Amino acid sequence: ERATMGNKPPKLPEYASYEALLKELKAANIPNDTQVIVAIDAKGEAAPNERKAGSVPDKLEESNTLDGALECCGRVLGTDPAFVYLFGSREAEGKVVPTRPVRGPTELLARWHSIAANHHASEEPLSIKAVLEQAIKHNDQTRQFHLVLIFTSHGIEAPKEEEMAALKLAARYPLSIVIVKTGSSPDKGLENLALGKGRFFDNVTLVDFKDVAAKDTKTREDYMALQCMKKVPTQYAILKKKQGYMPPAEVPVFEDPAWEDERRYQESLQTEAKLLVFGRNAKTGPVRLGRGAFWDPLTKQLYYTDILGKLVHIYNEEGKTDTVINACGTVGFAVPDENGKLYVGTNAGIELVDGLDVTKVDTKKNSGDYWISPYADIEKGKKAKTINCGTVDAKGRIWVTTGETSVQLREPTGGIFCCHGEQMVFTPLEAGLTHIGGIAFSIDGKTLYAADLSLNSIWAYEHDVSTGVLSKPRVLFEATTQVKGVVSDVCLDTEGKLWVPHLGGGAVVRYNPEDGKAIKIMRVPSLLCDSVAFGGENLEKLYIVTGSETVSMDREYYAGSLFVIDSVGVRGAPIRPFKPKVNDNNAGGSQNPAEGGAAADEAEGKEQGEESTLSEPLENKHSLDSGGDKDEIGS
């Protein structure tokens, strides 16, 4: 039943134009999400002289080049990302070299220019075996119909048996293989490959770009597409009839590091970061903009949020589960208290997750099964600005940063709030400090560090531990130029050093706060490192939350995932849970929050042998309870 083809392939229908081919492709019901794989022969081919992308010379001798062929394949590539590989060079060593996917011929040509000069001639004969094996690997996982474009400027003098065997094997898959020959490369070997002898169906199309280059510049792209895809309707019909091929209802994601830039991928192989929650496979998808990583030693759980996704994540280290809660609004942090309740910072203020006990999280519940109720109104009835992040100080008070999410700001927006019970202390941002990401306190609690995304620097405030008042803001240091991107969060180790993720740099950097020098750089296989926190049994692990909002998921394969580095050589500084103010002695009537806070803090200070200085806790000229002009305070 599976009769093999003879030496002569069946006669194919003739298409008068590219438009006629398009009609036939549509009539064949070929899926719109057909994937394209591009393999470029880099065997000694140096990048051609730079010229304006998209321009094709009129002269045939200048057009019949690998560069010219790549410029003419726009209609074949389509609008979806195309996988790109290099093969045939000395550096490839008989394999394919992955690069990041591209969209359209302009990106493909620029990509080719940037990497071809780093590849050198190989003494081994050119072989497409590795390309076919990679195409089969794609199809094994996705079972989609693939168009495989192989560009060669050297040709194949005599196909090896292993190549013919690879072609026979590829004929068992929904693959259409197109070999585009440029320049004066040998024809005989390519023709033998294209004959189709001994294969289940004719899965190879040979295109001599010399014929395409001879066409007028206005019609070259159409003619190139016509030549490359003229066999596709017939090939697809054979696949459906003889192999019973049906495209999958749900297309799986092709899991391959080739989605990333080859340099980034090589660096990620050397990273110590381990994948905990894979964004692509998560129920709610990859994290868009991660914030507020917070480790709770009591429950051994990591809390982090997705501001734009409006989600709270609870990662349980023992069970390896990631529970998601819908916060019904932008959410910048999530911190537990000592009684198992969870508090989140949303655009409505600080809120409490009802029906949740973090000591025994029900992993079977859906993200929308919880209710969010108000706890503290940050802006006193106004719609609060976005809460970017939050932390807890040594006295158990929640500290919150608010502002806009854009890093292009030039004027201060929002500020820093301290919450103790229902009372708030507001510290407006100083001139120059425009967009705070994460914040963290020094070990002694006397300094508050803040990551400023707009100026790519770390700021410091002096902090009065007893009253919760901030003063003397200053730029502590600017981020290192060794790592790209901007600082987005900060946490501390037991030596007082700062660990800062670089958003867009794919790394977490350990800084010395005294001189701002980078001590250590830890690479992460995702560019958008959003938030970090120490955790684990002895706070020896470093958790890293990555985002996906400003990158193409086609290029950043691990974007929006959660990573961990098991050991960075130092332990993290502990952060205590939130300690809400509860007035047990005044159940029958109301009490001024300031007085309640003073009594509790004073008692706590006496128990620890501290000298009480809490006569007026949490009150300064910016306090929202001070009776000042609220509009002016919120400006």
UniProtKB/TrEMBL annotation:
Protein origin, superkingdom: Eukaryota
Biased composition (Polar residues): 583-593
A Pfam family that the UniProt record links to this protein: Copine
GO biological process: L-ascorbic acid biosynthetic process
Binding-site residues for substrate, renumbered to this chain: 388
Record's compositionally biased regions (Basic and acidic residues): 618-635
Record GO terms (molecular function): calcium ion binding; gluconolactonase activity
Residue intervals of the Copine C-terminal domain: 102-244
InterPro entries attached to this UniProt entry: 6-blade_b-propeller_TolB-like, Copine_C, SGL, SMP-30
Family, per entry: Belongs to the SMP-30/CGR1 family.
Protein name, entry field: VWFA domain-containing protein
Organism (species): Lotharella globosa
